User: Fold these one by one.
Assistant:
Number 1:
Amino acid sequence: MKVTVSSQALNDGLRRVLNIVNVRSTIPVLGNVLIAADAGRLHLSTTDLEVSITTSMEAQVEVEGETTLPAKKFGQIAGTLSNGEVCIETDESLTSTIACGNAMFHIMGLDPSEFPKELEFIEEKKLELSCIEFGKTLRKIAYAVSSDQTRYVLNGIMLAIHESNFTAVATDGRRLALVEKIMDGVDESLKRKVILPLKVVNELQKLLDEEGTVELRLSESRASFTISDTVLTTKLVEGEYPNYRQVIPSSFKNSVVLPREAFAEVLNRVAVVVTDSGASVRFQLTENSLELSANSSDLGDATEPMNVAYDGEPVTIAFNPGFLRDPLRTLDADEMTIRFNDEFKPVAILGDEGFLYVIMPMRN
């Protein structure tokens, strides 16, 4: 194989694929990136057997072929190269010469035939989504995914497609984040629920930062996302996602509208004194006033009031400050609405269109 590609394109491609590499794998070739050159394109692929990604770029291909190189080290080498053309030439002993300017490296690779090839994708369902909007949706809920490995169905985001409704949900059992939207031009017969692993969700957020569309394809056990010149394929989390709608109260007695950024600033200041992971921030509402307070036995306390429009019953609700803060970082709306019944029942936060966040108060 002999191929020439710009250092910028090479580095951009490597940044897209390197995070999938499992450096702890007992299978050596999984620590490598598959490099293939054909028909004027250079292809980079990595996999951990659960998730696979391939990206391609324009290149000058003198000799078609493929090899694998240690992924992390190849990424480090590429990152040190000056701007210009990079020539990669692989001989019969699988040693690759990487040259750029006056720099030259000779790197030993592994047999590309040992690299796991992606199975044929038998498509059952397909739809197109806006990259920007889908990326925003994932960011608005990904923080609520459970890290408890014993509840594996909660270790990902559930996507539900029903006619023209598109729903994305994440929950860890103590809070729930949901985005629900109506999609135009979708086949009304399209109906499917899938659970995406968190690793894939995190990678998608990095890829979905540009204009354009992402093509989502679904098979019985896998999902594939095509974004420009990059294809990300994953196994789906097996199992039945719990009925999340049963934790959403059907009605609320009280609500208050808050300026999102101002509330986030007050919350951040008050939460500074919270040193115990089990401690809370108290949310005390009285007529036209909201007071946030927190205390720590080994540090002290903090209190800050806000003027708000509220004429309901006085109430004090204790929240995990991190759980309360998470949705505020990802919303775009200037104002947010907090709805509640009392200090014990689930509280709802609404902001952007289609967004809902339900959080359980703390009982202290």
Number 2:
Amino acid sequence: MKLAFTFLFIIVVYVNPLFAQLDSIYDQSVYRTFIVHLPSGYSANKQYPIVLNLHGLVSNATIQQTITQFDNIADSKGFIVVYPNGNGVLNKWETIGNSDVDFLSNLVDTIRSNYSANNCLFVTGFSQGGFMTYKFANNTTHNINAIAVGSGNMSDLVKSQSQSAPKIPIMHFHGTADNTVPYMGSPPTISPVDSTIQWWVKHNKCNPSTSFTAIPNSNLIDSSNVEKYYYSGGENGSEVTFYKVLNGGHTWSGSTSPSPLGFTNKDINQSTIIGEFFHSFCAVSNGLSEDKNNNSFKVFPNPFSNQLTISNLKNEKITLILYDNLSNQILKERFNRSKTISTDHLPSGYYFYEIWNSKKQIATGKVIKN
């Protein structure tokens, strides 16, 4: 990987408008710092999922906060998002050994002690933070609900040590013109990105047949476009989703921060997609998730093929809204009895739904089309 000069340039180029206060914990004989963002409307009467958001090499928590703009996602989805700092002169993550696995595990314990958090834990990371995301997910004693990696990879050493790792849903974004964490890998220690995706497909025991989607090229001046590969049917509800950014650089798709490291794709918003992905596996307790499991409504079958049925046991007037994985609303239906909707026109992949009555949102969930 091209490291120091490239990432030092990032620090100069990314002008951070946020002056967030750093918190710290004493871990392994040193103070480790981090930023916590609580969702808007945070209440001790509710319990929120935690998202760890890990920066790249020679970057830091505030830069990661700026690049990803994940505070906005946390506000809309109800996440406690934590931006930890790496360690040492390069502010790096230790992916050899478990010192940073232990730090992040202790940090999660601290957040759960100090804030109103539920048992859901998600991790996302950029560049070396992506490497650390894979390392942490495969080695922590905490249960992780899902992870999302941007422009990172998984070393062959970590793969060889992770055969008994948990089977979890993963999402990966990578540009084919990334010269910092090359798409074709860095032999002999890091295999191509495609190999890492296939490692996870096999590890999670997903269906090896992919569902392919060409994302519409809605921005004609970003010099890149996106292909999506989705592998369903993994054990323990796991799945693998890969966004391949053709001609994309070492960047975070949808970011408004300038980058000297190649083209930033604008057809997708990486943070929005990750937020929807995480939200589909866990929501706010004693708030949204109480309604999420509302037994008065059933959406089935799941997975579905050419039709989807909404069972409305109360026979009340409700509205069903269906979104694709890019958060685009693709369907809105109002009815007051059970209803079956034709889905022949929908491409394969996963979808998110909301059910509303006249006053509030009463159910949410995720369904998959084969």
